[in-house]
Amino acid sequence: MSPSASHTGIARLAVIVGLGAAVIAGRGAAAVAGARPAALQPAPFAVVVAPPASGEATLATLGAQGYRCAALARPEPDVRLGDVVAVLERVSPGTSPVEHRVVSGDARFSRAHFEEALNAAGAEGFRDCGLTRVTPANRRDGGPHAVVMSRVTGAPGPAREYRVIYTAGAGTDWRRVEQALQDGFTITRAVWAAPPGAGTVPEVVFLAERDPAVPATPADHVLESDATAPGLARRLAARALAGYRVEAAWASPAAVVALMTRRPGSQDTRPDYDVAASSTGSFSPPLSSGRLLASIPFRGVRFAIRDVARPGDYATAEREHPSFDTLFTARDSEARALADRLAAAPSGVHTVDVVVRTIGRGRLRTEAILERRRRE
After folding, report:
1. What is the pLDDT of residues 11-59, one digit of tens each?
2. Rounded to the nearest 5 degrees, what angle is found at the Cα of 101, between the Cα atoms of 66 and 76?
3. What is the percent of the chain with per-residue pLDDT over 90, rounded to a whole number?
4. What 3-state DSSP class applies to 343?
5. Structural domain containing residue 130
6. Within a domain: 85
7. DSSP secondary structure, 47-60, as one string
């Protein structure tokens, strides 16, 4: 695992479990906040805030208690995160111990080493729970990237093969995306940074995976984009009629972009795409609004790409940080606050996405999107 500098060089970390749990802070120091009665069941959620270099040891502590990474916070394009922010879930008191790995690297300049580490873990049955940008304050570019992976101790899942693809609009960059799709990979994660300077093409990093035991099914693809929610919805719907499915989405300065793929012989139900635009002040998706596929900030509004043919009910857990630095300089209290917000969410929900975004005047908000899936 490649070490990565933390925000403002701070090497502390915080582990918070919602509703009264141990707090681990500093280099080896430990304290207890709100001691839990023995009869009280462990909290359903935990939050980890740590530099990639020290995050794995922290995750191991929680994994031994049955917590598993559910989602990794993605900084929105104008946010620089110096730490990994992970949300973990403990499904039941009898959950088996879980092992975690944190794999970090530079998707642009050391892609081969990054992929090698991901594939070594994937071959041992580890699966990723998210991809994020980790950008120390003194860097001007998108910074290195990190992936958190997990497996149940003694019961690893099937092997997975990974590819990391950096794109910035160059032909060679995009050919790597095309090659991965031809080789049977599926794009599962995407993070992007705003174009440098006055550029018009964002830096997008994709994480793709495939099951090496399954014969590869090549996919063809199209890109659809629009600056309006109704326009994008019409484009996605038209492509869906031809068998294409949304696989990833991001924003450029000019439009929201969706990568759609089509795989021969696919038997999945045809989606019914809808795109809703709302204020970026809060996610606030309506209940029973369909399965959320992507939530993309664009020109002061948020595009929610949904498949209304598939059920999905949502809630959010949010924490507003008083200043940009607070998330990093006061890890303990900020992680505790987010963990408690999660613990107060309706029962039966699971974390499907976490974003960190600016909300004006130098403040940040960490927002977890929670889903209760109904029978399809």
Report:
1. 333 455 554 333 333 333 222 222 343 445 668 899 999 888 888 988 9
2. 100
3. 51
4. helix
5. 7-219+263-269+310-372
6. yes
7. EEEE-HHHHHHHHH
Residue with tokens 């990723």: 128
Structure tokens at 226: 């629009």
First CA to last CA distance, the chain: 40
How many other C-beta atoms can be found within 10 angstroms of the C-beta atom of residue 167?
22
Instruction: Tell me the per-residue pLDDT of 77-133, one tens digit each, with 9 for 90 and over.
Output: 888 888 899 999 986 666 789 999 999 999 988 899 999 999 999 999 999 999 999
Nearest of 369, 322, 365 to residue 75 by alpha carbon: 365
Measuring CA to CA, which residue among 91, 39, 87 is closest to residue 65? Answer: 91
pLDDT tens track for 303-315: 999 999 988 888 8
Tokens 């980890």 -> residue: 48
Residue type, 327: L
In a domain, 353, yes or no: yes
In this structure, what token pair is assigned to residue 368? 């977890």
Domain count, the chain: 1
Contacts of 84 (CB under 8 A, 6+ apart): 48, 49, 50, 51, 52, 55, 72, 73, 102, 132, 134, 146, 148
Q: Please state the separation of Cα 45 from the chain's center in Å.
A: 16
